[in-house]
Amino acid sequence: MKALYSIALAAALAAGQAHAACSYPTEPPAIPDGSTATLDQMVAAQKAVREYDQKINAYTACLKLEHETTLANSPDLTDQQKKEMERMQVQKHNAAVEADEALAARFNEQLKTFKAKNARK
Predict the structure, then answer these.
(1) Which of 110, 85, 106, 99 is nearest to 55 (CA)?
(2) How far apart are CA 52 and CA 31, in angstroms?
(3) Percentage of the chain with pLDDT > 70?
(4) Which residue, 100, 74, 71, 75, is CA-closest to 88?
(5) Rounded Cα distance, 12 and 61, in Å
(6) Cα(13)–Cα(50) distance, integer angstroms
(7) Is residue 17 predicted with pLDDT exceeding 90?
(8) For residue 27, what are the contacts with CB-CB under 8 A and spacing of at least 6?
(9) Where along the chain do its domains lie?
(10) What is the DSSP code (8-state) at residue 37?
């Protein structure tokens, strides 16, 4: 029975993946060191962080839509299969949000350093 469940789940996920339009965004290049960065470098980094945030928001919205579409197009899924798909969707969503927040935190730390260095001048 477990083998049948695994095969059915794999088939359902493969069907969803075949139409997957959700591609995980690439994180921007390294955040500049606030103690040595120029204003232009910090502005460019801020723009890259904002763009990444927008891409993460689009990615998580895509995940939700993809999940809902798969459920709507797969009426034969069991409750257990639906729960597993939901768990996977939530896990991907949370990982993306955590990566976005971590990048923002790294940028904010360097921005704080940059502002402190330039306040003394």
Answers:
(1) 99
(2) 13
(3) 82
(4) 71
(5) 20
(6) 32
(7) no
(8) 52, 99, 103
(9) 2-119
(10) -
